[in-house]
Design goal:
The protein is α/β, with parallel strands linked by helices and about 450 residues long. It has 12 helices and 14 strands.
Length: about 450
């Protein structure tokens, strides 16, 4: 409970600070006080509430905010990134203007009105007298000079030049109009670029997945099994923004590969069987020579994992919950194992990854391919002699430059690597989570071809 509250509190704080920054750069710095600033402030407040409201409502099964809310989250993210990047050139432009102003000449001094009753300190200039520099009318209350009579004209405020270091001067480099002009230029650039990037990302995310082909040598793979092909897909994220057509498109892409095995490595759904059962139904049409297999991802544990395990099995996918399956193909054999996602234990299901149950007691001369949703499981897999781990979870970062943050949590964001002697391949995933946007990490289905050495 406290963990959830802490997450929500951190999320609200982060979103609030981001919107405060956007308000400052896009509204306050670009407008004068008045109606337009007030309207912009109201819009910023509404959008600041929309972002967390979308995340919370969709988790509760209310999806009417999903499209506008998630699209704004994506635009917000890119506005933030672009404006932060523009901070440096904007600062440089201000410094250049200030330097040019100083080179052009001294600052323009503004006259300062001295109110009645104040003493006036005359600037000290060598070899100068009051007569030579001009006289100053002594206001009421000044002790120098005779007292004013009843018929005298009331003294007026005197206008004198400020002493050095006194009243401020106006420099074009500090001109509010010029600063506002720079701010408007940055705001216009960000305001045009961010929606354009998001529009491209929506088109990419909702389009067909790209097919990548990779060859991975396994030292223990029998010659007879050379060229065995595993169609690998993860993070399909069947949900309220995708629907049945999304699943059909991915199934058709996989079937065209004519694979020997199909591996679905987690995060299949974002909702319950009651909500998404019809959208998941096309999975029954998956075709492969030696079977289709599934392991849980963290999102299954948010969506009713027990029901989904039954439903996926009913659709023809073998669920590997901390277990392995012997694959006999082409006169050879390998072990295909699967472990549960760590979210199972973290959320109190007592069904976290159990590598001993999945890998213990097997023939060590036989190659083993492990299906594990999160790449970080590779460290434990290496301790159990796994030859190859197939994973997803990262979405390839989904939205550049978010991939840089993903890299702080996972050993590999996308592609192939060898870690502690175990090979790891991470696919981008075929769907999306949150904003229906992919930039720099297109949706992907990977055909992994195993080669004997």
């Amino acid at each position: 409970m406290f963990g959830v509250l802490g997450f929500v509190g951190t999320l609200v704080l982060a979103i609030s600070l981001i919107h405060l920054y956007l308000w400052k750069r896009l509204i306050r710095d670009t407008t004068r006080p008045g109606r337009w600033r007030r309207l912009g402030t109201i819009a910023a407040l509404v959008l600041a509430v929309l972002a967390p409201a979308t995340l919370i409502s969709t988790r509760q099964g209310f999806y009417w905010l999903a499209w506008p809310g998630y699209l704004w989250l994506a635009v917000m993210f890119y506005l933030l990134v672009i404006l932060v990047v523009l901070e440096v050139p904007t600062l440089v432009a201000r410094l250049v203007l200030r330097r040019r102003t100083r080179r052009a000449g001294p600052a323009t001094r503004l006259p300062v009105a001295v109110p009645a009753g104040a003493e006036v300190a005359e600037p000290a200039t060598p070899n100068a007298t009051t007569a030579s520099t001009g006289s100053v009318s002594a206001p009421a209350g000044v002790t120098s000079g005779p007292a004013a009579g009843p018929g005298d004209v009331p003294p007026q405020p005197a206008t004198v030049p400020p002493a050095s270091g006194g009243a401020p001067s106006v420099e074009p480099g500090h001109d509010p109009d010029r600063r506002r002009l720079l701010a408007r230029g940055a705001a216009i650039f960000a305001g045009l670029t961010a929606p354009a990037i998001v529009g491209y990302g929506v088109h990419t995310a909702l389009g067909p997945p790209r097919v990548d082909r990779v060859r991975i040598p396994l030292a223990k793979l029998p010659r007879a099994m050379d060229g065995l092909r595993i169609a690998t897909v993860s993070d399909i994220h069947i949900g309220p923004l995708t629907g049945k057509a999304h699943t059909e498109r991915i199934v058709a892409t996989i079937n065209r590969l004519d694979a020997d095995l199909v591996a679905v490595v987690g995060d299949l759904v974002d909702g319950t069987v009651g909500e998404l059962g019809d959208a998941a139904a096309p999975l029954r049409d998956l075709r492969s020579r030696y079977g289709s297999f599934f392991v849980t991802g963290n999102h299954e544990y948010y969506s009713g994992v027990e029901e989904w395990v039954v439903e996926v099995d009913r659709l023809g996918l073998r669920v590997l919950q901390n277990r392995r399956q012997e694959i006999l193909a082409r006169g050879g054999a390998l072990d295909l194992a699967g472990v549960n996602d760590p979210a199972g234990a973290d959320l109190g299901f007592a069904e976290g990854p159990d590598f001993t149950a999945a890998l213990g007691g097997r023939d060590p001369s036989r190659p083993v391919v492990l299906l594990a949703h999160q790449p970080v499981n590779v460290y434990e897999a290496a301790k159990h002699g796994v030859d190859l781990q197939l994973s997803g979870h990262t979405h390839g970062g989904q939205i550049v430059p978010f991939n840089l943050l993903v890299g702080l949590q996972q050993p590999v964001v996308s592609g192939h690597a060898t870690i502690d002697g175990t090979q790891l391949y991470v696919t981008n995933g075929a769907g999306f989570w949150g904003p229906p946007v992919r930039v720099g990490a297109p949706p992907q289905v990977t055909l992994v071809e195993l080669r004997s050495v």
